[in-house]
């Protein structure tokens, strides 16, 4: 199982199997990174420009090959147990969902190697050239997040929401429902 730079498990063997399409991929198959941030990697941007800014990997492609691949979550439910997020407006309560890193790029490989990354490292499949560092995240509720990092829980486990998570969700839903009721401002904010 893949591990964080600190040595805790991330809950998957292959982060790319869980990852989605690249965050930089536009709806028409163009590379937004090359369009918007050409100065960050001029050689990469020039190659994309020569190809009409087309993504050289493609929507179903080999994400290992792109040096700027990134897949960050925008999900509103836990990838492991399915718990939906219930956010309260104007409330400082801790979010129920957290971003969970499946891959930390070269930092994870450096910690495994005990320092510098060996460019000739063949720990990846032979037919894939890892261009990393890549950032890959999924949404996990904070209860599943703790289980994944503190045990051998996996993201693809057949798991239901933790009872404490269900209680928190229902508490937030109750507050949300209370906001739907009408109360005059004079009743809500009594002057002292």
Give an overview in words:
Helices cover 30% and strands 9% of the residues. The protein has 192 residues and is an alpha+beta fold. It has one domain. A 3-stranded mixed beta sheet has the order 1-3-2. The longest helix is centred in the C-terminal third of the chain and has 18 residues. The radius of gyration is 21 Å and the shape is flat. About 12% of the residues have low confidence.
Short structural description:
By secondary structure, the protein is an alpha+beta fold. The chain has helices at residues 15-18, 32-36, 42-50, 106-113, 142-150, 163-180, 185-188; strands at residues 70-71, 97-104, 135-141.
Decide which structural class fits the backbone: alpha+beta
Mean pLDDT, rounded to whole units? 80
Task: Tell me what portion of residues adopts beta-strand conformation.
Answer: 5-15%
- Total beta strands: 3
Main sheet: strands, sense, barrel: 3 strands, mixed
Keywords:
192 residues; alpha+beta; three-stranded mixed β-sheet; 7 helices
SSE blueprint:
Elements: H1 15-18, H2 32-36, H3 42-50, E1 70-71, E2 97-104, H4 106-113, E3 135-141, H5 142-150, H6 163-180, H7 185-188
Parallel strand pairs: 1-3
Antiparallel strand pairs: 2-3
């Amino acid at each position: 199982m893949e591990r964080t730079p600190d040595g805790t498990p991330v809950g998957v063997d292959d982060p790319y199997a869980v990852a989605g399409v690249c965050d930089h991929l536009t709806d028409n198959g163009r590379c937004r990174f090359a369009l918007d941030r050409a100065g960050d990697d001029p050689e990469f941007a020039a190659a994309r420009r020569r190809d009409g800014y087309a993504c050289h990997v493609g929507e179903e492609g080999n994400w290992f090959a792109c040096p700027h691949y990134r897949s960050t979550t925008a999900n509103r439910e836990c990838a492991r147990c399915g718990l939906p997020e219930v956010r309260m407006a104007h409330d400082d309560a801790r979010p129920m969902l957290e971003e969970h890193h499946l891959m930390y790029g070269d930092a994870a490989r450096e910690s495994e190697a005990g320092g510098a990354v060996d460019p000739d490292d063949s720990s990846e499949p032979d037919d894939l050239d890892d261009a990393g560092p890549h950032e890959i995240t999924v949404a996990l509720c904070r209860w599943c997040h703790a289980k994944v990092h503190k045990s051998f829980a996996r993201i693809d486990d057949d798991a239901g929401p933790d009872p404490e998570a269900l209680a928190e969700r229902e508490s937030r839903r109750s507050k949300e429902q209370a906001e739907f009721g009408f109360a005059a401002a004079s009743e809500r904010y009594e002057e002292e």
